[in-house]
Amino acid sequence: MIKLNTNENPYPPSPHVLDAVALATNESVRLYPDPEAAALRRRAAEMYGVPADQIIVGNGSDELLALILRATIDPGDRVAYPVPTYSLYDTLVAVQGGEAVRLPFPPDFRLPPGLAATGARVTILCNPNSPSGTLVPVREVDALARSVAGLLVVDEAYVDFARESSLGLVGRRENVIVVRTLSKSFSLAGLRVGLAFGHPELIVGLRTVKDSYNVSRLAQAAAEAALGDPAWMQANVARIRATRAKLTADLTALGFQVLSSEANFVLARRLGHDLGPLARALAARDILVRHFAVPGLTDALRITVGTDAEVASLLAAIADAH
Description:
By secondary structure, the chain is α/β, with parallel strands linked by helices. It is built from ten helices and twelve strands. It has two domains: 2-9 and 231-321, Aspartate Aminotransferase, domain 1 (Alpha-Beta Complex), CATH 3.90.1150.10; 15-229, Aspartate Aminotransferase, domain 2, CATH 3.40.640.10. Helix content is 38%, strand content 17%. The strands form two sheets. The chain has a seven-stranded mixed sheet, with helices on both faces. A five-stranded mixed sheet has the order 1-11-12-10-9, with helices on both faces. The chain is globular, with a radius of gyration of 20 Å. The chain starts with a strand and ends with a helix. The model has no long low-confidence stretch (mean pLDDT 97).
């Protein structure tokens, strides 16, 4: 099975991660994990240049997004975000009884006009965005932070594959929270570790609504080791970027419209054509890609950037299916 539908990293994590997990398994699984993940927060502070009191650790970035809305949204409060984007936002807003304000992206996936003027208590920007892979420049994110009435959450799940990050805004804008995950670039999807960066008072607020032991000892040990070996992650990111460029060029040659991606996936479109049958034909060959059977995206496939061999098999199968 070639699995190119969930944006996992095709390469393994740093060998130091496996060593750390083995050591933690042998020594400490009988004990509860550190509820504050202090060692991991210190390591993250060293790597990202953000004070530890401005960092909180979550069970993947999904939990951190849930905590943010749990801490800020009462029934009827507005949460705004451009669409199409990560579908979990809809669910999290509904759980809190909030009102989702969904502003359509224009065709080029620039920020929708009016996003800052919704009066939302929380505005969310997935950047790079999923499923488009497009990136809003940091200067525009900064302008958005200055314009929104409430909190701006920048979901940077894919940012290590991009050319720039909004993390520097955390020290300048008290209303900005940047959310990261170690699932994608650090190859830790199976261990569920996320980081959120924000003003110390925002972080204190999130700590009051999180579960005590939300991140396991094994996950904390793995994440600390992964952050301690950034060169391994960066080498894998470089390989994925190179494959992404070739995949984009080859899909374009096959007649797809492919947006310029800053993530570890691409969005390939054939305007006006339902690509569901193509996705099913690929699945019949044990190649999984993501088709969105929703208005506005039926003519698109989101394809994770796999290894060169996996991408070659995908392209051959698409060519055969023509």
